[in-house]
Design a protein that fits this description.
- The structure is a single chain.
- By secondary structure, the chain is mainly beta.
- The protein folds into 2 domains: 1-138, Hotdog Thioesterase (Thiol Ester Dehydrase, Chain A, Roll), CATH 3.10.129.10; 142-239, Hotdog Thioesterase (Thiol Ester Dehydrase, Chain A, Roll).
- 14% of the residues lie in helices and 41% in strands.
- It has a 10-stranded antiparallel β-sheet with strand order 1-3-4-5-2-7-10-9-8-6.
- The chain is globular, with a radius of gyration of 18 Å.
């Protein structure tokens, strides 16, 4: 079952080019999913407070087809997809009037907060029916052309304004963190993929490594314990 939420883009959602940041669009998508869970059950709050579990994002891929501007009225659709094992699939679509301006697919894990053990899909009973999987024009996995060519381009310490209730760097902030290392004047992200591997917690510092290849920028961030935090691939283009 597809769920819809309405959003108006405001000026705080924009970057210096005057278009909506990817982080804002990801936030709209996830807030729409939160609304579906809150209204149809189980809510994210009841999962956390009553069952002691929380959803963590594992993979996220998206295509952004058009620039989105201040005061654009958006309709965000989201729906769960048939899942198995420990991977919970969800899709998203953003409309502006009659035009699809962005689409995304995500894989989530449901994790016991105390033990860190994943919960099987068969143990989760949503209050809504599943719908079809989107077919995105995004590579199914991130393949680095060369890991030897990765260069250190920056570091980032997770602060108060970025941490979620699990005390982790919220997944919607990762695109801003990586965009800080790019020159995006007169450019925007057309496609992106994320693999979220090990959480960065409040106060943690991660080192950001990247390489540019063709139209793509590849990223790998490392925690101070040497574990890979996230991997990403951005495809840039003109606005």
């Amino acid at each position: 079952m597809k769920w819809e939420e309405k959003f108006e883009v405001n000026t705080h959602d924009l970057d210096f080019n005057g278009i909506a940041r990817v982080s804002a669009l990801m936030r709209f998508m996830q807030e729409a999913a939160n609304a579906q869970c809150r209204h149809m059950g189980p809510s994210l709050e009841s999962l956390r407070d009553e069952q002691g579990v929380a959803f963590l994002l594992s993979r996220f891929s998206a295509g952004f087809y058009e620039s989105i501007f201040a005061y654009d009225d958006l309709t965000v659709q989201t729906w769960g997809v048939e899942s198995r094992g420990f991977s919970f699939n969800r899709c998203y679509r953003i409309w502006r009037n009659e035009q699809i301006v962005a689409e995304a697919c995500a894989v989530w894990a449901l994790v016991n907060i105390a033990t860190r053990r994943p919960v099987r899909v068969s143990e989760y009973k949503p209050g809504f029916a599943y719908d079809e999987m989107l077919a995105l024009d995004v590579p199914p996995r991130i393949v680095f052309p060369s890991t030897d060519a990765l260069k250190l381009v920056g570091e980032h310490t997770v602060g108060y304004g970025e941490a979620d209730q699990n005390m982790h760097l919220n997944n919607t902030h990762y695109s801003d963190m990586l965009c800080d290392t790019l020159d995006l004047r007169e450019k925007r992200i057309h496609r992106l993929s994320f693999n979220f591997l090990n959480e960065a917690r409040l106060g943690d510092t991660v080192n950001i490594y990247s390489l540019h290849h063709g139209d793509d920028d590849f990223f790998r961030t490392l925690r101070t314990d040497g574990k890979v935090n996230v991997e990403a691939q951005f495809t840039l283009g003109e606005i």
